[in-house]
Amino acid sequence: MKEIYLAGGCFWGVQAFLDQFDGVAETEVGYANGPDAAPSYQDVCASSGHAEAVRVRYDENIMPLKTLLEKYFSVIDPLSVNRQGGDAGIQYRTGIYYTDMDQLIEIEAAWKKVEKALGATPVVEVGPIVNFFPAEEYHQKYLEKNPGGYCHIPRSMLKLKG
Asked: Which entry of 6, 7, 10, 110 is annotated as an active-site residue?
């Protein structure tokens, strides 16, 4: 199993989106790459500096990182700074945080592909995961628990499967 952290706006939708795919073994929402202190949701909403992110454990034999990143880029606006959909603030920034330097090659290739397709430079952060603090339990699998809950990702994207 490999692990990567993806920030794509509100973590509820990103988790629900990623959970539907074969090869994604486990996801957990939390707060990434902010100050070292473990924040609460209220701290994050008050601009603690953490990004809402999803820890993704994936089987690279089933879901190669290249494919996982293509899926990720399909549901974010890579040109939007600190905003995805109606959500705005530093916690809604986009980011790809790797756990292994070997992942950086695939990340850079995906980045360049998006840059070429858009004709503009993405503003998605790329760097190592510095820290990650799991979010409160009520945030985990939020859209499963609350099917009518808010999501900036179109509902049609949460029913792709495979």
From this structure: 10
Which residue segment(s) compose the domain that 151 sits in?
Answer: 2-158
Contact criterion met (CB below 8 Å) for 74 and 114:
no
- Whether 151 is catalytic is no
CA atoms within 13 A on the CB side of 17: 28
Residue with tokens 């995805």: 84
**Residue 115's domain is classified under what CATH number?**
3.30.1060.10
Q: What is the pLDDT of residues 21-63, one digit of tens each?
A: 999 999 999 999 999 889 999 999 999 999 999 999 999 999 9
* Domain total of the chain: 1
- What's the CA angle centered on 39, arms 37 and 42, to 5 degrees? 150
